[in-house]
Design brief:
heterodimer, A: alpha/beta, four-stranded antiparallel β-sheet, 11 helices, 15 strands, 29% strand, B: mainly alpha, 10 helices, 73% helix
Amino acid sequence: MEGTPQAPVISTQALTKRYGSVPALTDLSIDVAAGEIFGFLGPNGAGKSTTIRTLLGFLHPTSGSASVLGRDVEADSVEIRRLTGYLPGGIALYDSLTGEQALDYLGDLQGREPHRRAELCDRLELPTAVLKRRVRDYSRGMRQKIGVVQALQHDPELAILDEPTEGLDPLMQQAFYRILDDLRAEGRTVFFSSHVLSEVERLCDRVAIIRAGHLMAVHDVSELLARRRRRVMIRWRGGAPEPDSLPGLEDVQVHGSRVHGTLTGEVAEFVRAIASPSLEDLTIEPASLEEAFLEYYAEPDDVPTAAGPVEAEQ
Amino acid sequence: MNGRLFRQTLRWQRARLLIVLLAAIGWGVLIPVVYTAFSDVMRDLANSGAIPSELLNVGSGSLFTLPGAITLGLQHPLAIAMIGIFAVGTSSTAIAGERARGTLEVLLARPISRNTLYTSILVALLLAVLLVLSAIVGAMVGTSIGLGVAEELDLGRLPLVVLNGFGLWAAFTTFGLAASVSFDRPGPAIGLTLAWLLIHYFLEILGSLWTDAAWTQDYSLLHHFDPGAILAGDVRPLDFVIVFAAAIIPIVYALFVFPRRDLAAPA
């Protein structure tokens, strides 16, 4: 691995990018540690791709600085790209080449042996017969699989993936998740942007949430999951108890013998508290991060100023 | 310069290059044949005064002499179109086209600097231009030898003809590639490069047809490539300086501008 264990693999300090007077990214400061899978979330146009393109040297920061694998993104962009695997969003490939030729070409240009290609092709179900076909004949999902292979075939120290599961069917998404799990187990670092909250929940150690070019928050996913809110429906024989006797339940609505509410916190503790012979039915919907994230996605007028506080738990 | 990128750029162009080379050889064979068949008739026609001699010229070329015919063959719209396929068409779309398709992003995700990418494509395109130019000149000379009229040519000056022609077309190629690094879409780059070529062609033709406007030819890069004059022993170093300067300026521009451009996500 490049860099020391303490040094962040990706570090940005007040990174700002403007197109003329239009701000695309404002004072972004994040650190991505070695060996973690870091999710980068935000709605369309939030600045996710701008951040990634700045890290790879496609865009020049207006102000602030960033480093990848200990190297400055402005001064050492070529070396950063040597050590990095990148999957662009909606990847475009050379239609006249076969899948195999495209991988050979991009692998040659990378200048590193494509050690992982066979394994990745196997796991993503890209047999030789498919690789011999021209890219122009590929479906979107097939192109995306080639995109994943080209990004990871040289076993990069850092993978930067822009919406990597777009176009992949559910089976291939699972295969892709397992690939990322293995990368993490090997100590590789993955930085990926996504809209898909379930995959962020499934994969990421930490997430950054960005909106309108501003960093809204950086969270440990495990912590978010602990704080997640679940929808609860309880039915009692006879009348419902007083809402105050239901610990942890918020937004309580009572309809006869039924109570609806939102549970924050530990389920076991709540179940113990409400357990009684008169309890007839209990439904707790599976929790997801969606609601937690939607709090950040919503309210576009509430974007903090450049100097404003950011809730970061790093 | 990246060898893999250079080879692949040529590989993308191989079918097109093969077809253009065949056409160029065909054109190069045709010119001496036409010269031997029609030069006397054309000369008599010009001497009779029935048609003004200006109308019997194309730019600085004519069918009155073999060197003049070679100049005509290299300034003819067909020759310009053949060489222009690479010097204008391919050069102006090379990088802007990759950008519009989204493949530039995949390329630049490799450890390749933008200047390395530019240089690799430039060298490949200049080689293609040189091959087409050499095919035309080679076919003209070979056919002249075959027809027994080569004594009208000073064959020892042929390398200078190729060098001067290469400088001329390198100027358009580097202009096209400079336009290509400047735009996110190939359309404006093609338009600008084609306009640049047409302006020079217009100035050259205008001066050759209208003697009062002969001064306009000095402002045409095409006028600074006169194979007939070189083959007749009139080598003008300034022509070489002008065409090579015109080739180098866009290179300097592109090497400065391309690394500094922002490459936002393709639409």
